[in-house]
Each structure stands twice: as C-alpha cells, then as structure tokens.
Design goal:
The protein is mostly helical. It has helices at residues 16-47, 55-60, 65-78, 88-122, 124-127, 131-157, 162-175, 177-196, 199-204, 206-216, 218-228. The protein is globular, with a radius of gyration of 20 Å.
Length: 230
C-alpha cells in the first residue's frame, strides 16, 4: 500500500494547529480593522491630557468606536466554526456598512449624555455640591454604559428600529442580570487597562473584549432571537 493512500483519520487542515491558526488569523484581522476604524479618534485621545477640562473632547474622540465595535461583533458572530472560512475582513466591512447608521442613532446620544456627565464630574468640587452627588452621577454613567453595551449587541446582530433597540436594551438590563453583571466586569477591566496603561493598549486587545462581550451577552441574544424575531 502506498504511503500516499494512508489516511490519518482526518483531512488536512482539520487538526488542532489549523484551528488555532485560523482563530488567531481571524482575531488579528478583526483587531487590526478595529484599530484602523477608530484611529481618527484614537490618536487625539491618546495625545489628550488626563485633565478634567478635556473630558468632553475625550468623549468626542469615541465617536468612531461605536461602529467599529458593531462591525467586530458582526464579524465574530458570523463565524460558524469553519476553519477554511478566512474572510473576516469582508465580514467586518459588511457589518460596518449594515450597522453604522443604526449604531450612530444610539451611540451619539449616549456620548452626548456621557459628555454632560463628564462635565458635571469635572466641576463637582467647584460647584460645591455634596459628595454623594458624584456617586449618583457615576452610577448613572455605568448604567448608561451597560445599556449601550446591550444596544450595541442587539443592533449589530438583529434588524430592529433604533427605538426598539433602545427599549430592548433597557428591558434586558433587568431581564438578564447575568449579562449586566458580565458586562460590568468587562467595563471594570477596560477602565483598569486605560487607567494603568493607555487607550492604545485597550484598542490593541479590543477584539478580546468584543469576543468577551459577545459571549457574556449570549443569554440576551438567545432570548431576543426566540422572543422577538420570527
């Protein structure tokens, strides 16, 4: 029997090494595209000082982040486990084109609210308001961010009107508390990375955070699909 006819029990390209290589390629490609998409805001954001007066400018630099996160969520969700499917760039571009309008309808109001919150926090001491007011503002910012995380996932993976996405995102804050808790942990880690390193480091590992967001949001996406889609 010719050695060429001996089968190892699986076809070429189906082994563990091929799967790991495919996954790494996919993650690196999506991460590179995310960085490229947020670069117009990332460069000035990194150059800004950590002064409270620059908080509104820092928030404005986050405008490109929403569509980039949405495109990454779309590209990661579209992968069905086929290691021969090496088209993450095409899926990222498709997700960006499909979702940019819907995402910005929610992302821009969220950033506007975040900017107001940042200004309020920057002037708490000067205004002489009680310290507990700062805690309330921070809680509001966290809740708004958790709502936005839900909204990003829903609008990236499903086709709903912006107002319906907003309602669903708010509904699932309470309906799937495990999702809110998981996303809160991701938020804490992200803030820690920015605080101890920089925004650039967070962007460098952004695809890992997006993957974790997609996984932690799975109970919510399952319920959306079962209860609110045909």
């Amino acid at each position: 029997m010719s050695i060429l006819n001996i089968q190892s029990g699986r076809d070429f390209g189906e082994g563990p090494l091929a799967r790991v290589t495919s996954l790494v390629y996919r993650l690196m490609t999506i991460d590179a595209l995310m960085i490229l998409a947020v670069l117009p805001g990332l460069i000035p954001l990194v150059l800004l000082s950590r002064d409270a007066a620059d908080a509104p400018l820092a928030v404005a630099c986050l405008i490109p982040v929403g569509p980039a996160l949405s495109a990454a969520l779309f590209a990661l969700r579209r992968h069905r486990g086929d290691i021969t499917d090496l088209r993450p760039a095409a899926e990222f571009r498709r997700g960006y084109a499909l979702n940019v309008g819907g995402v910005l309808r929610l992302w821009l109001p969220y950033l506007a609210a975040l900017s107001v919150i940042a200004v309020d926090l920057a002037h708490v001491k000067a205004s002489g308001v009680p310290g507990w007011w700062s805690a309330i503002i921070v809680v509001l910012a966290v809740v708004a961010t958790l709502w936005m995380a839900n909204a990003l996932v829903i609008t990236s993976l499903f086709s709903f009107r912006a107002r319906d996405v907003a309602r669903l995102a708010a509904y699932f804050l309470g309906a799937t508390r495990s999702v809110a808790l998981g996303n809160l942990c991701l938020l804490i880690v992200a803030v820690g990375v920015v605080d101890f390193a920089s925004e650039a480091v967070l962007a460098l590992f952004g695809v890992l955070f997006v993957g974790a967001l997609l996984r932690s949001s799975q109970p919510m996406t399952t319920r959306v699909q079962e209860e609110f889609t045909a």
